[in-house]
Amino acid sequence: MRFHYTFQKVVDLKANEKTQAEWMLSSALGELQAQEKSLEDLLEQRRGLMLALQHAAEQKTPMSKLREMQDYVDYLDHCIARKHLDISRAHVEVQHKQNHLSTKVLDEKVWLKAKDKAQTAFQQSMILREQNELDEMATVRFAMKSL
């Protein structure tokens, strides 16, 4: 006789939920990395512009051009500040997804443990049944020899 777990569909569902939570965490981590890469690009762009601005200030550059470059630096500073907020939100989202995954992993473990216990109980009952059958056969043989 083969073991059949009554709640196998629940175990499968919990495994699927865990897999989905892993994908969601992976997606959130990808978003965080994209935001961090974008911030690095903005910071690099600002560094290059600051060097160009410094170089332009040392040269005979019209004030309007310097002002235009400074306005663009200010714009980049604003973008960098916004990007820091985006990164903070992405960190919060990653933390949320990690917590969600932890819950799903724990939930799956609970159901797998219940399945293991049910399987162990089934195996014990099969061993007991087999032992009883062997005892009965031995009793019948003993009774036959006695006659």
Automatic annotation (TrEMBL):
It is a peripheral membrane protein. It comes from the Bacteria. The keyword Aminoacyl-tRNA synthetase does not apply. It is found in: Cell membrane. GO terms for cellular component: bacterial-type flagellum; plasma membrane. Pfam families: FliJ. Keywords: Bacterial flagellum biogenesis, Bacterial flagellum protein export, Cell membrane, Cell projection, Chemotaxis, Cilium, Coiled coil, Flagellum, Membrane, Protein transport, Transport. One of its GO terms (biological process) is chemotaxis. InterPro entries: Flag_assembly_chemotaxis_eff, Flagell_FliJ. Residues 25-59 form a coiled coil. NCBIfam families: flagell_FliJ. Belongs to the FliJ family. This is Flagellar FliJ protein. It comes from Paenibacillus riograndensis.
